[in-house]
Write a structure and sequence with these properties.
With 620 residues, the protein is α/β, with parallel strands linked by helices. The protein is flat. Its cofactor is Mg(2+); thiamine diphosphate.
Length: 620
């Protein structure tokens, strides 16, 4: 088939041949071919005209013919992304904005120590009647006080410190809070932005230093972003697994004055958006299949056990839902050190604490269980010991498709980090327990009679109270002291908050005090920070002013002189601070001395001279 050039293409070819490649080409050379094309088009149109339908002009819309006056009130287009502006901060300093943001977040107490770089904030809050400021003697003490406050109340602890050494002194509490999932918000002063990087007096790269021990940190470089950064700090510290955050405040930001309005949505505490709620709903639907598989494993289990960590305590309604699950399916419950109080230890299904210094019967139950239900625990090395030898019963059941380890955890990184989970349910523990409970089949203690008979046998063979008792004229055993304290507070466990340091006394307290209510055990678990106990107790007392018998902080010093350190006279040291104090060395004086301590109307100290060589047993 041969292709012929049309007359139009020939004309275009002629045009290309005659056109000069310059701006001065003759007009005729360009227009002549166009005249030919145009004339031919007119001929074609004329020929087709008799057969074409008559054209009808469309009628204009009424709006087109409207009078000019009716169009004089046209509204301008509005950007749907543009938010309302908040003018309430105009004319306020950064310190005054900080004060207002604390009120918006319902902060009642702030812990901290003043310094030059943070003075604009202190100036703004100095005479505030809206919250109390608790002054320690050291920034580390402020951090641990805020931790104790957060543990006892469930609200984030807020710390305010200065730049340089003031900020570096808060690093240990930050790491402690990160290890134990404690919501801690630290605001630290900083040199002016113009001096950053010049090695100015008391300058330190706190953002860089704290990056590894915080969930999130930031330096505020402009006063206009201060409200947004404070909102972000509160949201991040309290969402998911709680933890510490740090906000670095240069002095020119806190001393400067805001001159323009800021968007309202960044000046108010954030609420879940429609998109985030939709994402949560989609995630919930995906969870349902996994939850049903978990329920099937529980329903067919012969020897199940619940391993409850701190996540059950931190999750709103967690302890109540844990009890519902344990009661409905008749499942024994063991807890971690930080999970103590999440399950009533006087319940017949309680196995008490597990792990290296936990009860023998709790560890035996974990080894022989065919299904382990981990609720908010991360399988710490103090719990698992040798991973290869951990939970052989559950591993064997998983291989046969009739059991295994199911892990409810809010932090994705903790899933399959230490042990391989047969089923993993990611998200808030309490929310997912609400999905699980309807799927679990009700079973009575009689249905699991063989399993509970085995556990009862272990409890009789290896009771926690099996230790060498004090003689009539011998030294005091620390275990006895803790047991007597537990008995004296039996009727008021809910209002008894106990804080410990780290060491043997921490384990004796965990083992021999009977824990019945959440958030009543306050200790440093993950990091094991010595010096944590006293400031944490002060913070807990601030959070629960009517708790601990409605009186001041009580201090018990277990003095076994084991380290050979040269210590001061603790009784005289307390008396020098106008604090009543006593020393007890005889076993028959333990109960009266504890009664005296509890009965004192304010802070008091009891020094207990204990046996020097008392090991913490069991130790697996």
């Amino acid at each position: 088939m041969m292709l012929r050039a049309s007359p139009a293409s020939q004309a275009l070819k002629a045009l290309s041949q005659t056109r000069q490649f310059c701006s001065t080409a003759p007009v005729a050379a360009v227009q002549a071919p166009r005249k030919i094309i145009t004339s031919r088009r007119h001929q074609a149109t004329a020929a087709a005209a008799p057969s074409a339908a008559p054209q009808v002009r469309p009628i204009p819309s009424s709006a087109f013919n409207a009078q000019e006056s009716s169009r004089s009130h046209v509204q301008p287009l509005v950007n749907p992304q543009q938010s309302d502006m908040d003018e309430s901060f105009i004319g306020k300093t950064g310190g005054e904005i900080f004060h207002e943001m604390m009120l918006r977040h319902n902060v009642k107490h702030i812990f901290g120590y003043a310094g030059g770089a943070i003075l604009p904030v202190f100036d703004a809050i100095y005479n505030s009647k809206h919250f109390d400021f608790i002054l320690p003697r050291h920034e580390q003490g402020a951090g641990h006080m805020a931790e104790g406050y957060a543990r006892a109340s469930g609200r984030p602890g807020v710390v305010l410190v200065t730049s340089g050494p003031g900020a570096t002194n808060i690093i240990t509490p930050l790491q402690d809070a990160l290890s134990d999932g404690t919501p801690l918000i630290v605001f630290c002063g900083q040199v002016p932005t113009t001096a950053i990087g010049s090695d100015a007096f008391q300058e330190a790269d706190v953002v860089g230093i704290s990056r590894a021990c915080t969930k999130w940190n930031v330096m505020v470089k402009n006063i206009a972003e201060l409200p947004r950064r404070i909102n972000e700090a509160f949201e991040i510290a309290t969402s998911g697994r709680p933890g510490p955050v740090l906000v670095d405040l240069p002095k020119d930001v806190t001393a400067g004055v805001l001159r323009k309005a800021i968007p309202t949505d960044i000046a108010l505490p954030s609420l879940p958006s429609a998109a985030s709620r939709a994402a949560m709903e989609a995630s919930r639907r995906h969870l349902e299949a996994s939850v049903r598989r978990v329920a099937n494993l529980i329903n067919q289990a012969k020897q199940p056990v619940i391993y409850a960590g701190q996540g059950i305590v931190l999750s709103e309604g967690g302890p109540e839902l844990l009890k519902q699950l344990a009661d409905k399916a008749s499942i024994p419950v063991t807890t971690t050190l930080l999970g103590l109080g999440g399950f009533d230890e006087l319940d017949s299904k309680a196995l008490h604490m597990l792990g290296m210094h936990g009860s023998a019967y709790a560890n035996m139950a974990m080894q022989e269980a065919d299904v382990i239900i981990a609720l908010g625990g991360r399988f710490d090395d103090r719990v698992t010991g040798n991973i290869a030898k951990f939970a052989p019963g559950a591993k064997a059941a998983a291989a046969q498709g009739r059991g295994g380890i199911v892990h409810f955890e809010v932090m994705p990184k903790n899933i399959n980090k230490v042990v391989q989970a047969t089923e993993a349910v990611e998200g808030d523990v309490a929310s997912n327990l609400k999905l699980l409970l309807p799927e679990v089949k009700a079973q009575s203690m009689a249905d699991r009679s063989e399993w509970f008979a085995k556990i009862d046998g272990w409890k009789k063979k290896w009771p926690m109270s099996h230790y060498e008792r004090s003689g009539a004229n011998g030294l005091i055993k620390p275990q006895t002291l803790i047991e007597e304290l537990s008995k004296l507070t039996a009727q008021r466990k809910e209002t008894t908050f106990i804080s410990t340091g780290v060491g043997q006394h921490q384990m004796w307290t965990a083992q021999h005090f009977r824990w019945r209510h959440p958030r009543t055990m306050i200790t440093s678990g993950g990091l094991g920070t010595m010096g944590f106990g006293l400031p944490a107790a002060i913070g807990a007392k601030v959070a629960q002013p009517d708790a601990l018998f409605g009186i001041g902080v009580k201090v018990i010093v277990l003095n076994n002189e084991e380290q050979g350190m040269s210590n001061p006279d603790f009784v005289k040291l307390a008396e020098a601070m106008s604090i009543p104090a006593k020393r007890v060395a005889k076993p028959d004086q333990v109960v009266p001395s504890l009664a005296w301590l509890i009965g004192e109307p304010g802070p008091a100290l009891l020094e207990v001279i204990t046996d020097k060589k008392v090991p913490v047993l069991p130790m697996s």
